[in-house]
Specification:
By secondary structure, this protein is of the alpha/beta class. It has 2 domains: 10-64 and 344-441, Aspartate Aminotransferase, domain 1, CATH 3.90.1150; 74-339, Type I PLP-dependent aspartate aminotransferase-like (Major domain) (Aspartate Aminotransferase, domain 2), CATH 3.40.640.10. Helix content is 40%, strand content 15%. It has helices at 10-18, 54-57, 71-83, 93-106, 120-141, 163-168, 198-219, 242-254, 326-341, 344-365, 386-399, 421-441, and strands at residues 39-41, 48-51, 111-117, 150-154, 186-187, 223-228, 231-232, 238-239, 258-262, 286-289, 296-301, 370-375, 378-382, 401-402, 404-406, 410-413. The strands form 4 sheets. Strands 3-11-10-9-6-4-5 form a 7-stranded mixed β-sheet, sandwiched between helices. A 4-stranded antiparallel β-sheet has the order 12-13-16-15, covered by helices on one side. Helix 3 runs antiparallel to helix 9 (326-341), helix 4 runs parallel beside helix 9 and helix 11 crosses helix 12. The longest helix has 22 residues, at 120-141. It is globular, with a radius of gyration of 22 Å. The chain starts with 9 loop residues before the first helix and ends with a helix.
Amino acid sequence: MLMPRITVPAERVFPILRENILVDGFHLVVDLERSHGCYMVDALEGKEYLDCYACFATLPLGHNHPKLADPEFRHSLMLAALSNPANSDLYSREYAAFVEVFRRHAVPPAFRHLFFVAGGSVAVENAMKAAFDWKAQLNRSRGIDGGADQILHFRDAFHGRTGYALSVTNTEPLKTRDFPKFAWPRISNPVLHFPVDQAAVAGAERQACAEIEAAFERDRHGIAAILIEPIQCEGGDHHFRPEFLKRLREYANRYEALLIFDEVQTGFGTTGSMWAFQQMGVVPDLLAFGKKTQICGFMSTDRIDQVERNVFRASSRLNSTWGGNLVDMVRGACYLQVMIEDRLVENAARQGARLLEGLQELAERLPMVTNPRGRGCLLAFDLPDSETRNAVRTDLWQSGLATLACGPRSIRLRPPLIIGETEVALALERLEQVLAARHARA
């Protein structure tokens, strides 16, 4: 006998949830059936929202992409959902199919090893653990006492909210306050402000490099890795010069530390290339991924093989029950195939350039809009202060445009990779209407 379908009327969603959880997100009940493309539909009122939020930039194909109606894909998805096997010990055709597609289309040639897990924060943590293990074994092989127990990281970084990640996350104090953390070296972040003041950036980079060198000179054997987001998203969509990231590569080589790029937010086509680092002329040793990939984890170059019994060769050194989630793998493989077939990474670069040009034009006309910036579908601009930013976001929401905040006074745009010229024009139209009205009242 089939179990009855559990249904809840749209008008009961908020009352039920408010009785049990903190409800502080968007005021809509997302209609999973009627949402489509770059548009979310509110099941309460039927209103459509142009989605430049995309579930924290996790939806490369937007909502209900027609290619996801493929019966074979849906059959595989259902099989994975019905049992959810423990990938750490049970190997399936679906698991292998995902790895094959991921390796072929998303893993750059320099990367040899893969590790999968559920959650971006724990993806970064396991990359850190791989670095700790590597550096500690390297130290012991050279007769150096004491383990490697530090990660050099940067101000305004967001790497997650669990365990080790708390010690390297430092955006809003509320997110880490009163939780025990390690006092690891934290470096000034020489971020770019657009238009770029080259002298100011050069000075900021010199300061950061001096801090890095001082940290390694204090304890070169204790620092296992340099960890950075190629673009600091949560912290304010902060961009760096590629030359600075290349300096980090040099420091990692000089001081025998691993270079970790956290591309949980910047990866999988978001910036107009499969990975942001591919636009910057530097290859990290470890790369953490998540969000748009659906499955999370990290990949490693063969530099880690300098240690023979590294985490990819020692059984159970890194592990989790599900080794990710097979449902996410099936969905992620399908997403990736569609991205390649429809050239969506290239589309993100093309449409993102149009969006950025529009933001730059707004900044020229409206003094309250500053620092327009972006790569591909990862875009942001600044407003005078947090209060103004929050008010503008509310106005944008009421106009039918969903956005995200970041840093103390920035609005970020994260449209799906499928965004087209029509949606770009509509997003810019709504931005201009809201910002011009706010400017007129100022």
